[in-house]
Design goal:
One of its GO terms (cellular component) is cytoplasm. The protein is α/β, with parallel strands linked by helices and about 425 residues long. It is built from 15 helices and 17 strands.
Amino acid sequence: MKFKTAKDVISYLYALPHLHPKNDLSFIKKVLQELGNPQDKVKTLHVTGTNGKGSTSYYLSNLLKKAGLKTGLFVSPYILEFNERIQINGQNIPNEELVEVANQVELAIEKIRRTESDFSLVTFEYEVAMAFLYFDQKDCDYAVIEVGIGGQHDKTNVIDPEASIITTIGLDHEKIIGPTIKDIAQEKSGIIKQKKPVVVGNIPSEVLSIIQAKASQEKAKLYRLGEDFKIDDDGNYQFESYKFKFMPRPKVENYDIALAVTTFLLLKIDLTSSMIQQAIDETVIPGRYQIINQQPTIILDGAHNVQAMQNLLTFLHQTKNYRKIKILITIMKDKDILDVFGLFDQRDEVFLTTIPYVRAAKKEDFPDEIIAKYSYFEDYQTAFSKLRDSLQKDDILLVTGSFYLVSAILKFERCSNESQKH
């Protein structure tokens, strides 16, 4: 046995390389074959998209759970603990079972190394293998699988899902799957499979033909948001003879709901209208428009690219009866920093910070005009505490720009609350 604790597993995973020299699926396929191809033994649903894939995955898994089905969920990134990445029926994989499946994956790798001495997995491949093995061993009825990056070459793309979902297509991770939006669309279309339905959200008109061509090639029936199913700003949803009313949310969140519900309905699983509405309204998505305080309102959202930030700020600026919006933000230095900051309203009070993470922008990474315009706090905890304490009843504080910052603030708040109890 190589691993004894969950900490051992996680430390080992993050010491592994992140990319192979060649970008294909041969490594993950080989280890899954050695494990008995667990990915083929559970019905799956595959979700990709520039934004919204995590939210859509959570909504869809909660619908399946509500229908009484044992449902696995594989998502990234995690917010509070690594175990969030692999869940069954909303419960994170326990530490002892994380250790168990990791040791089984390691044993499979050791067997392969008997004939291929240099065989190894990258971090994400190891995580994917653990997830599929866990879902199979726990006899899941379904597993909702969120793509890591892209689609066609993503390490999760070893399944023949019951349905595929493409939430949105925009510019992100251009260096890996770009550089153009057409390249990104082509990559994401790779999850469309032979004669399996594909449900798509807001796809830009210049790349819609790429998705349509791939669906036609695979004889996969295409269901488009706004054409085949609809949802309005008030949460009114319609698909074929189905009609539901959901609680109003940010427009982009409504779109994710519509994608999840449409996919669920295509599976022909028996669930009453009221239970469908209940499943959606009960779904809590960590770090995605997560409200942790009311009056004053404190919102955490990991929006980390131009498309996500634009959707978030548009909704926030339409909010009625607020006095001020204060925004605490850090951003990864490889993102389009100027484009993101160009979305803020003149009335927004924006404060910059950073976190102890190698990709996070420090003061010197922000453009001069951004540093000249906004206050910068080296310590995110100090920044958050000062802003929180300065809020009036009708103010809104938004923490955004990175899931890493959202995670750090949630942990800080949890520690603060626990210390106050004692």
